[in-house]
Amino acid sequence: MLQGHEDVKQYVSNIGRYILNNSSLIEYKNVFPYTFQVINDTIVNAFCTPGGFVYVYTGLMKYIDNEATLAGVVGHEIAVQLIKPQNLWGVPNPPPDWELVAKNMVHGRAGQGESPARSAAPAAPSPAAPIPAPPIPVPRAPVIPPPIAPVAPPVVAPARPAPAAGPTTEQRLSELERRSTQLLESVLDILRGQAEEYTRNCLEEFRQQVDAVIQDAESRLRQDFQQSYEESANSLIGLRTDLMEQMTARGAQVIRSAEDTLRSRVLSQPAPVQKTAPAKPPEPVTKK
To answer: Which of 83, 93, 94, 105 could connect to 79 by a Cys-Cys bridge, CB 3.0–4.6 Å?
Structure first.
């Protein structure tokens, strides 16, 4: 089956629906549904199966050059469904003129009956034809995808020439030793590079950790120093206040003690005798 390309499938289905809706000779088109499918293959053919299944190859769609030819092929496959209906198509009692209708559709003379040369019997009056359904617009032919290309056979490599005489055992051992030495040196270089990179990463990580520890220690020392300074300042202020209070009290006590001592000494001494000095005669005034 054609995968994807829903426009191609819809295009073929629209042609089939157009034929079904515009033909009054397909009497049992409503008994079973018609299905139109597209097969992706280069075969130039189409076929149908019981039950209204119609299949069209993409090879046929690429071979024909107009839409009318494709419609004729699809109509032919629809008509093939009517040749031997019987119970094969799910119709228990087909009409008596079924074979005549199928033959006319196959030969492209649907609705005309037998020719006068082949049948002398008068044609029976046909019933009123049903009003046909409006036609379904048929889109333009889309681009048909290319068929699946066959798989190319595998390319067989040419036979290799016979190998020349191989090296001796000593040469093989020497080559093996040389390759082993190269391999060992390359492995050592890789390990040396990985060790150096790991050491650099470890040193960088250790330096970052040391820097973080130093910054944390400096921050803590700064905080402790500020706290110690504030506590020392508060202690000095309190000590100065205490010393001032003690010195004031001590000075007051010393002053009171001195006052008491002086008062007791003054009271213990006798009263002094007042002596009057003789009056001096006035000095004579000399005139110049």
So the answer is: 105
